[in-house]
Fold this sequence. Notes:
This protein has helices at 7-11, 23-27, 48-61, 75-87, 91-99, 104-111, 125-139, 161-178, and strands at residues 37-42, 66-70, 116-119, 145-149, 181-187, 220-227, 230-238, 249-255, 261-270. By secondary structure, it is α/β, with parallel strands linked by helices.
Amino acid sequence: MFSPDKYPRRIGNVGTPLSDPLNSLALQRIQFRRAATSMIAGTPGSCKSVIALNLLVHWAKDKNGCLYFSADSEEFTVVRRLAGILTGDDLDTIEKKMLSGQHGRYVRELSRIDTVQFEYEQLDIQGIANRVKAYEQIYGAYPDVIFVDNLLNFVESPDDWGGMLLMTRELDALARETKSHICILHHAKLRTTVAGKTPDFGRPPADYEIQGKVTQIPRLVLTVGADNLTIRLACVKNTNGPQWRDASEYLNFSLTNSMRIQELDFAMGRV
Length: 271
């Protein structure tokens, strides 16, 4: 049993928000909190991983330790994107220089985020927990932020809805144990409203379009749609902030050719 008035000695920084990675999110009181889970969901190609890497760079520069489980992308793709976000160089230039051995500048920039570690294997929850404990042994503390990219790659099959729900619950328990924030990337499927009509992939999915119905566990659920270099981000669940009506309201961002996210002057949009 726990006495509510004794909470300070128990919880420490549990529930405190990480620094705001984007002003638009801060204005909408969309915050990523310690010892809690969030989810970023979208259709394939909706820039979920690009958003996650931009968040990672912001928090890493803010001296937060980050551990990124990337079962959806290999190391070359991840490093090229990170180099673009850090330097502002476009991805074609980065690829040409990397392949020709002119990667000194990128190595220097990447070394500045020296508390970031990546894991590219597909793991079960015990494997993830073991890597988190190994991080603690190296750095003397658990990572402040853990990314899981993406949920489908950490269950037995793409149709394993029960496995997705169980994995999400176990990741939530891991977040509480380590006091880390865990950001889970996940797929969604846009439904067509008219027979034969192509789905609007630039529209952020609604809550009910997220696969596996796993959104009851994360405290924060964002959905994303991408139209060329325009990103639309909707908040369909925010336990510790204002509740949006649905995904018909969203924030607008743009992507540079380097994969940096830029905020727009008129950020709020509506379907």
